[in-house]
Amino acid sequence: MAKILPFKAVRPTRDKVSLIAARSYDSYSIEQREARLRDNPFSFLHIVNPGYKYQKVISGKERYSLVRNRYQEFKEDKYFVKDEQPSYYIYRIVNRDGNVFNGIVASASTQDYEDNVIKKHEETLQYKEEIFVEYLQTVGFNAEPVLLTYPDNPDLAAIIKKVMTARPEYEFTTTYRDTHYLWPVSSTEIVDKIQTIFEAMEALYIADGHHRCSSSYLLAKKSKETNPNHTGAESYNQFMSYLIPESDLKIFEFNRLVKDLNGLSKEEFLIKLDAMYRIENRGLEYYKPSKKHHFSMYLDGSFYSLYLRKDTYEINNALDSLDTQVLFKTILEPILGIKDVRNDKRIYYADGKNDLAFIKTEVDKKEFSVGFGLLPVDIEEMKLIADENLKMPPKSTYIEPKLRSGVTIYEF
To answer: How many Cβ atoms sit within 10 Å of the Cβ of residue 39?
Structure first.
């Protein structure tokens, strides 16, 4: 039973929302960040990058305190206002590729995370969790929702469709040509229906935001331990989420580029591959895999198709069958010597929106020796791994939608 609740969001005023909303900080190049900070005084980047005001790099606790200060200044200047009624927020995104995402911004339960009602499919890094916990504890808000997905539900779809017949509170298009719409929903009748529908769901799945989710859980746990009057109703027991149906989720692959062949010549490398794969040299033909356990490889000016020899690879669970795991266990680790795919500097991940031409260009420039193209993970694979309490290798999925920070804010 999922506990998905309405909340009183802090939101930009209608005239400022298009100026305030920002992509995640790390998604901008240095030049892009500088331009937005210089030319747009309302950008949410001014909050998350407070050092710009002092023309210096600020980190750690000092930075988090300044983030809190900048956020308070935006509220004092009435750029942000807080809703008076707890609400769900119907949020629609139409991106430049024509993909449409209809979902609900709400608060999700850290207890559900602990009880595995909210299911995970990726590992998290302890040092990142600790950083995020300290950050959240200092700033006191979530500004970017965790992306959760749920099984398609016709009753919920009907509610969302009906709400969207009214004029949205927000309608704005970004410089990336994505259009965003938002409808606050505070009607007791609709709120109760939405809450009841989610309560009937046995499980939700994290699509994107594992570190944000785990750090919110750790903050709640820490806050509970230090609060002698803890009741479970405190706002720190929830975190902001954007929930969309599984059919709306768009999953792309993460391709791999490797700096060198681990001391092997091209011929030695191909001979080692031959033990596990049926190999075909396709020359300059762009080969993109169309079946599981098939891979594309670009090496020394040629594309190759690699078909796994199934009698040489044992599959015991959902993780073993995952293409990113197959590639790791058959090539990256035993042949190329990459044992730590999270931290090894010899491997680079390119999301599937960068096509095979990107891999070819990088290898041709001699930045990398070899590149591998993969088939995207599908939603059923992702769920099966989560259901078996297994974790995917890092960078197994690139998932859309990518959300903007600062459109709705959850304070705790």
So the answer is: 8
Quick check: 409 and 81 in contact, CB under 8 A?
Answer: no
Mean per-residue pLDDT over the chain, rounded? 93
CATH of 254-375, one of 1.10.10, 3.30.1760, 3.40.50, 3.30.70: 3.30.1760
* H helices, E strands: number in the chain: 14, 20
| Residue that the structure tokens 């409808």 belong to | 183
Beta bridge partners of 180: 93, 172
pLDDT tens digits for 139-179? 999 999 999 999 999 999 999 999 999 999 999 999 889 99
Residue 68 binned pLDDT confidence (cut-offs 50, 70, 90): very high
DSSP for 152-171 reads --HHHHHHHHHHTTSPPSEE
Task: Give the residue range(s) of CATH 3.30.1760 domains in the chain.
Answer: 254-375
Name the residue among 42, 49, 48 with its Cα closest to residue 20. 42
Interaxial angle between packed helices 188-199 and 154-163, expressed in degrees from 0 to 180 and rounded to the nearest 10: 150
Q: Are 139 and 71 in contact (CB under 8 A)?
A: yes
| pLDDT at residue 187, rounded to an integer | 96
Give buried/exposed letters for 179-216 (b at 16+ CB in 10 A, else e): ebbbbbbeeeebbebbbebbeebebbbbbbbbebbbbb
Helix (H, G, I), strand (E, B) or coil at 206: strand
Say how far apart CA 115 and CA 128 lie, in whole Å. 22
pTM for this prediction: 0.90
Rg (C-alpha) for the chain, rounded Å, is 23
Supply 139's token pair. 């700033």
180-234 pLDDT, tens digit per residue, is: 999 999 999 999 999 999 999 999 999 999 999 999 999 999 999 999 999 988 9
Contacts for 239 with CB less than 8 Å, ≥ 6 apart: 107, 108, 110, 142, 146, 212, 213, 216, 217, 410
Other Cβ atoms within 10 Å of 309 Cβ, number: 14
Assess contact for 98 and 250: CB atoms under 8 A: no
- Chain segment 99-140, per-residue pLDDT in tens: 999 999 999 999 999 999 999 998 787 888 889 999 999 999
Closest C-alpha among 242, 278, 222 to residue 409: 242
